[in-house]
Design goal:
Layout lengths: L1 E8 L3 H11 L3 E6 L4 E8 L2 H11 L2 E4 L14 E3 L3 E3 L13 E3 L15 H15 L8 E5 L5 H8 L4 E6 L2 H13 L5 E5 L11 E7 L2 H7 L2 H5 E13 L3 H10 L2 E9 L2 E8 L4
Amino acid sequence: MFVYSCQLPSTERTLWETRLDAAAPASVVWTAMGKDRLALEAYFIEESHAHIFQMAFGGSLRPLDASDGDDGWEPLPAVIGDRFLVVAPEAAQPPGSPHAVLQLRHCPEGVFAGHAHPTTLTCLRVLVALADRGLLSSRTRCLDMGCGAGWLGIAMAQLGAAWVDGVDPDATAIAAAEANARETQSTCTAWHVASLGEWEAVRPYDLVVANLFSALLETHIGDFNRLIGHEGILVLSGILTRFEERIRHAATAAGWTVNETSTRGPWVTLVLAQTGVC
């Protein structure tokens, strides 16, 4: 798999969506880099398609290689601990599953659905582990930062969270998350159009999950200090292994300690607590 990336003015998103429709990458991730800039990552299975796109439109291209030779992707349906069975939006629900089926049918084009992405599935496994340890419960206020279609926020609600806020700068993503929350009867959720730098918490969260670009996490790591309570937990994902040390350094400088690390293919997920409370 190959990753095409570039940054562009927010006003050009429609133009780039048309280009991407024609190129048909496996998945596309949009991330707001401030009010007027967007970062784009497009994942191509075929190297030739990725090179043609780069030759046509510039940007950068890199292979998505892991040290063990796999890219971390896994087939669906995927079992998540003893809690969930993740099913693709368009798939028929498997009959008689002993797990709760997690299937979000509203995943519009251009919104990071993430149901099969290694970072989403790793985050889901981390959330299930936290719930099993009593760290995600009916007393836990949660934030899904960069929620996309709502997979992680809805999973936190399904795991029994007291409240979940989902935040994304893309209004289309928020509309999809709201529709998915209604269909899954995730009533303890609210969904908001805002960026990481803009969002203000009514009161501190106990658990925050941010499955975002490494550059965005590194730039805004300090914003999590004002969003999370003194004994809160921060889950960072979307980190390629080549950027792991930079994120760790930025987190340490901001007063965080990495308690757990999960790696799948070239992707890293970190579970952090504030230094001195872990």
